[in-house]
């Protein structure tokens, strides 16, 4: 169920970099103890048109959506772990942000084909 959505400046991160970044984000989530590794879904959305201030040329913003129920400490720890891993592995990214959001388990619905 956890959805990791990575938005990034397409002009500054090519396919090999974004693939490695997606893998790193998955690894942090899968080993966090906050979610089951087999439930983590990671996707990346390249952005061609953007306006960045302060001299930044590249950015990555991660939105991690989880069903409600994790503690604030779990979410903060996960956000810090993601930020630290990505900042270490990808030091040339000018701006990196993480936003962890709770999804309402009553309102969240999904369908799995064949299940």
Structural description of this entry:
The protein is α/β, with parallel strands linked by helices and 115 residues long. It has a single domain (3-103), classed as Macrophage Migration Inhibitory Factor, CATH 3.30.429.10. The protein has helices at residues 15-30, 72-89; strands at 3-9, 41-47, 59-67, 95-103. Strands 2-1-3-4 form a four-stranded mixed beta sheet, with helices on one face. Strand 3, helix 2 (72-89) and strand 4 (95-103) form a beta-alpha-beta unit. Helix 1 runs antiparallel to helix 2 (72-89). The radius of gyration is 15 Å and the shape is globular.
Tell me what the CATH architecture is.
2-Layer Sandwich
CATH topology name: Macrophage Migration Inhibitory Factor
Give the averaged pLDDT, no decimals: 92
What string, H for helix and E for strand, traces the elements in order? EHEEHE
Number of helices: 2
Count the strands? 4
Instruction: Going across the biggest sheet, name each strand in turn.
Output: 2-1-3-4
Summarize the main sheet: 4 strands, mixed
From the N-terminal CA to the C-terminal CA, the straight-line distance is: 15 Å
SSE order and pairing:
Layout: E1 3-9, H1 15-30, E2 41-47, E3 59-67, H2 72-89, E4 95-103
Parallel strand pairs: 1-2, 3-4
Antiparallel strand pairs: 1-3
List the defining traits of the structure above.
single chain; 115 residues; alpha/beta; Macrophage Migration Inhibitory Factor; four-stranded mixed beta sheet; 2 helices
